[in-house]
Design brief:
The protein has about 190 residues and is of the alpha/beta class. It folds into two domains: about 160 residues, Flavodoxin domain (Rossmann fold, 3-Layer(aba) Sandwich), CATH 3.40.50; about 30 residues, no CATH class. It has six helices and seven strands, in the order βαββαβαββαβαα. The strands form two sheets. A five-stranded parallel β-sheet has the order 2-1-3-4-5, sandwiched between helices. The chain starts with a strand and ends with a helix. About 5% of the residues have low confidence.
Length: about 190
Amino acid sequence: MAHVLILYATQEGQTRSIAEFIGDILKDEGHTAEVDSVDTPKTLGSFDAVMIGASIHIGHYPQSLRDFIKKHIKRLNAMPSAFFSVCLTASKTDEEHRALAQNYLDGLFNESDWKPDLSTSFAGALKFTQYGFFKTQLMKAIAKREHLQVDSKHDYSYTSWEKVMRFAMKFVQLLKKPAAPSQAEAKLNASL
C-alpha cells in the first residue's frame, strides 16, 4: 500500500477538515496517510503519492502553497498527485460558478506547470464566529450576493462530504494503478 502525504493550506480550518477526512478514508483503504500543513517543511522523497488542498480567499491561493509547488514541481509531476480547492464558489452548481471554480484551478496549474492526476473544487464554509468585524462584513456581503446564509451568529458548512469521499476513492483507484516505468526502465525493457 502507498505512503501518502496530504498537505493543506487553510485559514479557518475547513480545508484541514477535508484533508483529515480524506486521510481517514485512505487509512481505511489500507494506505498510510500523513496530514499536515503546507507551511510545515516537508520533503517528498519518502512518500509514494501526494495530495494538496488549499482554500481560495479573494480569488487567490495562499503564497505558501504556490511556493511549495514551485519548490517541489519536479517531484510533484513525477509521482501520483491530486489537488483540491476549497471555495464558496463551488457551493453553486450553475455553469457560471463551475467555470469560475475551474478557472481558479487552471490558473494555479498554468502558473506552476503542475499537472496533478486529479483535481476538483469543494464548497467551503462560512465561519462567521471566527471572523473579526471587517471580515464578517465582507463575508456577509459575499454570502448575500451568492444567496447564502448571512446570520453572523452561526457558522455554515457547504462542503459535500459525499463529493469529498468520491474524490478520495478516485485517488485510491489511482494508487492501485501500476507506476509508469522510468525512462531508464523503459530503455532497459525496450532493449530486451
